[in-house]
Amino acid sequence: MNNFEIGEIARRAGVQTSTIRFYERLRLLSKPTRVNGRRRYELGDLRQLRAIRVAQEAGFTLAEIATLFGGFSKDVPISTQWREAAERKLTELDAKIAQVERMKLIIEEGMRCHCIRIEDCLLLLDTPAKEESLAIPM
Predict the structure, then answer these.
(1) What is the C-alpha to C-alpha distance for residues 126 and 107, in angstroms, rounded to an integer?
(2) How far apart are CA 86 and CA 92, in angstroms?
(3) Which of 27, 51, 55, 101 has CA 20 to 30 A from 65's CA?
(4) 126 vs 138: CA distance, rounded Å
(5) What is the pLDDT of residues 23-39, one digit of tens each?
(6) Does residue 93 sit in the same domain as residue 63?
């Protein structure tokens, strides 16, 4: 049985010790056993920390991670939980990608602008085609 002190598990997981204590408060990580008053973690805790990191890298918020790891029925397999959360996240990411693509288009169009007066700028024309191609969601 691997038993790690907080500094060792933090180093292995690539996080700060304060992050581990924060995750415990959020219940993303279970309360560790204590030996002589010191926190002791097991290999499963290290795996949980790595799973949290992977989920964060995929764009999940801590609240979404909490739901993913603990907000489903125990009868629902983790693969199903992951798939449901991943489908929601992919929809969200597609919307963000579309928004970033619109932002990039506006910046590229603006870089081609050589207007002397703002009134002459083609980016500001009130044409339906321009509005459709450069529409920014509010």
Answers:
(1) 18
(2) 10
(3) 101
(4) 18
(5) 999 999 988 999 888 99
(6) no
